[in-house]
Write a structure and sequence with these properties.
Blueprint (H helix, E strand, L loop, with lengths): L5 E5 L3 E4 L2 E4 L2 E2 L2 E4 L4 E8 L12 E7 L9 E4 L7 E4 L4 E6 L1 H4 L5 E10 L5 E12 L5
């Protein structure tokens, strides 16, 4: 079932710069089926496969028509009364769920997205980015 795919993202894409390591965002394109529940699980681990501890972290995701678009088509958070993003800290997993009632309102075609994690020290890590392609629904 394509709507439940898991994605393993490892931080071996680190670039050593001086005494710090900089994580470059992974690139992954998502297909969102209009009118269906969109559910993706991202697991963040280091190069040895050890889960990144996300205790105290928050996550956010935005989808826009283009990088230059002022307003997002979707804005999802791991905080608030009804979060669309769930974090399981000790497993390094971030689950994004967009209900069918929301995906049914999206216009078909390619868009762009990114997922960011706000670390406990307030550093922002862009974990993933890419195209968010909305496939049109036939059955309504």
């Amino acid at each position: 079932m394509s709507g439940c795919d898991g994605l393993l993202y490892t931080s071996h894409d680190l670039l050593a710069i001086g005494l710090e390591a900089v994580l470059t965002a992974g690139i992954h394109n998502f297909t969102c089926e209009q009118g269906a529940t969109f559910r993706r699980v991202v697991t963040w681990s280091d190069e040895d496969g050890t889960a990144i501890n996300l205790s105290g972290c928050t996550a956010r995701m935005q989808v826009r028509n283009t990088h230059e678009t002022t307003s997002p088509v979707l804005s999802l958070l791991s905080t608030g009364n009804n979060p669309a993003i769930t974090i399981v800290p000790n497993t390094g997993t971030i689950t994004v769920v967009i209900p069918a009632t929301t995906t049914s309102t999206l216009t078909e075609g390619p868009k762009v997205y990114d997922i960011e994690v706000v670390m406990t020290n307030q550093d922002v890590v862009r974990l993933l980015q890419g195209q968010f392609i909305v496939s049109p629904e036939v059955t309504r």
